[in-house]
Amino acid sequence: MDWVKPxxxxxxxxxxxxGDADNQSAMxxxxxxxxxxxxxxxxSLPVEPKKGKPKTTDFPIxxxxxxxxxxxxxxxxxxxxxxxxxxxxxxxFGAEPFGDCPPKSRRKTKPSKRPKAVxxxxxxxxxxxxxKIGKWITQQLPKSSYDPYVALTAxxxxxxxxEVGRDIPPALWLEVLQSTLTQVDRAWExxxxxDGLFPWVIWACEVPLALAKQMSHLGxxxxxxxxxxxxxxxxxxxxxxxxQALLSFGGQxxxxxxxxxxxSRWAADSVGARKWYPPQRRALSKLQMILLHLSDAxxxxxxxxxxxxxxDCDFWTSLMKLCKEHKKVQLATAVALPAPVGKSQGxxxxxxxxxxxxDVRLPKPSHxxxxxxxxSMRRNWRKNDCQMAIDFSRDAIWLDLxxxxxxxxxxxxxxxxxxxxxxxxxxxxxxxxxxWFSDDDVDYLELECDLExxxxxxxxxxxxxxxxxxxxxxxxxxxxxDTKSDWKSISTWTLDPAVxxxxxxxxxxGRIVRHIAQxxxxxxxxxxxxxxxxxxxxxWRRSTTQGSLYESSGKIVLQARTTRTRLLSSMLVAVGSKCxxxxxxxxxxxxxENLHKVSDDVAQGCRVQIGDEQWVFYRSxxxxxxxxxxxxxxxxxxxxxxxxxxxxxYEPMIEVTPE
Length: 659
Known about the structure:
With 659 residues, this protein is of the alpha+beta class. It has 17 helices and 26 strands.
C-alpha cells in the first residue's frame, strides 16, 4: 500500500484532517487503531505469504533480523548482558531458526522465491521466545530505553511481529506496543540528548517505520510515515555535513547508526514511500566515506577493539546499493574492503587494485575531523599496510595501526607517564592539536599537553606514505629553571591480543609478531608484522644508560630518562616488507650551532637505514636557531627527509617551523 496519498485525494482531505492530524502523537495513533478491538487488529497481522507473485519491494523477516546485528559492539552500558536478548531474538527468527538446518541434498535444485513453512515445533519455540522477550522489553523500556541493546531488541521484536503476532497473548502484544510508542513520543518531544544520535534514531525514525510496515494493511498512517521520512532526511543531511554528534563516542556508534538508516529505508520501501532525493543520497555517500575511513581492510570498525566489532559483507553491499550513483565512493569501498564486497557490485578487484591510475579517481586517503579530534591516515586506498586511526579527544589517546594484511598491530591506548625527581606527575589535561599536515609524502599530526608550572609534552605521529613507515615521538619541555633535573618518561602502546613483542638480546630494537595457528597441527607459526626502532636509544644494549624498550602486560613500553630539563623519546615503526628486511641500522647525529656541538636537550638528529634506503630526522627542543647536521642547515622545529643516493642530497618530506 502506498503511504503517500495521491494529489487529488490529498487536496480533498487536507482541510478535514488538519485539525486532528497536527496534534496526533504516536500513542494517539495506536489508540485510534485499537479503540474497537485489539484482538481484531492482532488477528489481521499477515502470517502466511499470499499466493501469486512475491512482493519485490520488501525482504524476508529474517533479513531484517540479521541486519539488527550490523554495527553492534561492546557499548559501555550498565548491563552488557542485554546483548544476549538481541542475539536470542535473531537466533529465533533467523534464516535457520534455533540452528534448524535441514540436511543438504546432493541434487541441485532451483532456489525457491517463496519462504518455506516453519515446522510447528519451531513455531512454538518462536512464540515462547517472542513472549519471553516481549515481557523483558516492557520491563526495560521505562528505565533503559536508551540502552542500545534494548532499543535494537525492541525494534527487532516489531520486525518479527507478523511471524508470531497472532499467537502472542493480546495483553502482552498491546503492552509492548504501548511501551514502544511511549518511547517514540519521548524521542519526538525531546530530540537527541547526551546519549548521542544512536539509539535516538532508533526510536525517532526506525521504530515508527518498522511499525508502519507491519500495519500497512490498516491504513491511516501515511502522515506518520511521511513525517518520519522528512525527519530522517534532515538528520542524514545534517549529520553528513557535521558528523560531530555522531563521532562523539569515538566512532563506536557510526556503523550502527548507518545500519539503522538502511533498515529504515527498507521499511519505507515496503510501504511504497518516496525514494531519497539527491541531497539525501549525496549525504548518505558522505557517511559511507566516513565509515570507510574508520574501517580497516578486514571490514572491522576502527577506534574500537577489533574482536568486539564484526565484518558484515551484507551491510556494505546494502549501503553501496543505496549510494550507487557516487562512483568515487563505490570504487574506494571496493578496493579498500574484502574482495566479496566489491565483487558483489561487479568490480574486478584484482584489476582495480593493481591499477595505479585509479589513485587519481579516488578520494583523499586521509582525513582529520577537527571537532571530534579524530584522524585517519593511510598510504592509499589500494594498500592495506600502515593504515592508522587516532582519537585524541580524551586524556589517553587511542591509536589503531594495521599491518600489510589490514589486521591490527597496535590497538588501544597510547599513553604517557612522567616522573620528576622520582615522583609521578599527574597528567589530567586534554591534548590539543598544534599542527596537522597532509600531502603526497606524509600525514603529520602534532599534539600538545600543557601541564602548567611543570612541563609541556608535545606528541608527534607521522605516516611516511611512500615508505610505509610511522614515526612517533614524545618531547618533554620542563618548566623548572634548574640546570639539573631528573625527568623520566614512559610511553606505552597497546598491542593487539593476536600479536606479541619480541625484543633482541644484544640490540635495542624489537619486532612484533603475529601468532598463526596451523590447521594440521597444534603448533603455530610466528610471522613478523612490524619492526620497532627506538631512535632515542643507541643501537646496542651495552651502550644504553638512559632508556629501554620492552613489553609489559600486553603493552610496548619505551622509557627515556634525562638529568636535563628537556627530553626526546622517539620510535620508528616499519610494517610490510620493510619489517622483514635483515639490513637496518640507526645512528645519532652530531648537531652543531656556531661550530659547536649542542647537547641532547637542545636538539637531536638521527639517521636511519633499512635496506638501501636512508632517512634523516631532526627535532629542536630549545628555541629554533640555525643549526647543522650531515651538511643540512636547519632553522626549524622538526625535519624529516630522504637521502638520495644518486647525488648525495636530501629530499625534504616535511619541515615544521614555529609560528
